[in-house]
Amino acid sequence: MTSVQPHVKEAGRGPAVLCLHANASHAGQWKGLMGLLADRFQLLAVDSYGSGQTPDWHSERTISLQDEVDLLMPVLDRMGEKFTLVGHSYGGAIALKIALLFPHRVKALALFEPTFFSVVEHESPSPNDVDGIRHAVAAAGAALDNGDPHLAAQHFIDFWMGQGSWAKTPEERKPAVAASVRNVRRWGHALFSEPTVLSSFGQLNVPVLYMVGGKSQLSAHAVAKRLVATLPSVELIEFAQMGHMGPVTHPDVVNEAISGFLQKVFS
């Protein structure tokens, strides 16, 4: 258990829904979803370590997904007996880890390309289907070692959003993104070294909405292929025109899908 308190945005009343953001983002990415669902649900969106207004990781030990869950324990403790999880990318991986640890408390999950790369890594060492993100993390880390956080951000953002995406990023947003990408090796370690094996997800018998972008990368699709085949109760939606950052680039479409899923779960 950590003494660090995560920053939480909250809206609405009703069944509890915890929203977890992607890397290089913050809880604000769920603002639209919170507005859409606040008349029916209690929405809590949390800044993860080193994002938004939550302090950075405080230990010399490399972070794990368990550490990310431990950060959220004060939030989970106030969410009642049952809650639903919404997660994107790294936030989706954390959501899955929570669900495996507390299956009796999770009502449902809505996930957009959770980056649980270890399920591929356990299957076979590199070269494998997650080498793309492995190489992007290595390139970003090398740029950080050379004192160039903006180049590090370029490697990371261009991998997930396409070549030239960093150059198109508004200048006022670049400093915050570059600052967050300093943690890129830490994220990679947590996702690649996670000990949970793929078969564990076969015991997660709760409704899961699994969303993917048709234009996303093999690294994300490889995880999706394995998890969708293993989760017992999963609905797959592919948004043909979206990439990995669909919840950020097309929030209205993704949020409507999440809303429709929750309506079915709670009807």
Summarize the topology.
Elements: E1 8-11, E2 16-20, H1 31-37, E3 42-46, H2 65-77, E4 83-88, H3 90-101, E5 106-112, H4 118-121, H5 131-145, H6 149-161, H7 165-168, H8 174-180, H9 184-192, E6 208-213, H10 218-230, E7 234-239, H11 246-249, H12 251-265
Parallel strand pairs: 2-3, 2-4, 4-5, 5-6, 6-7
Antiparallel strand pairs: 1-3
Could you explain the architecture of this structure?
With 267 residues, this protein is an alpha/beta fold. It contains twelve helices and seven strands. The chain has helices at residues 31-37, 65-77, 90-101, 118-121, 131-145, 149-161, 165-168, 174-180, 184-192, 218-230, 246-249, 251-265; strands at residues 8-11, 16-20, 42-46, 83-88, 106-112, 208-213, 234-239. A seven-stranded mixed β-sheet has the order 1-3-2-4-5-6-7, with helices on both faces. Helix 1 runs parallel beside helix 12 (251-265), helix 5 packs antiparallel against helix 6 and helix 6 (149-161) packs across helix 8 (174-180). The longest helix is centred in the middle third of the chain and has 15 residues, at 131-145. The radius of gyration is 17 Å and the shape is globular. The N and C termini lie far apart (35 Å). The model has no long low-confidence stretch (mean pLDDT 96).
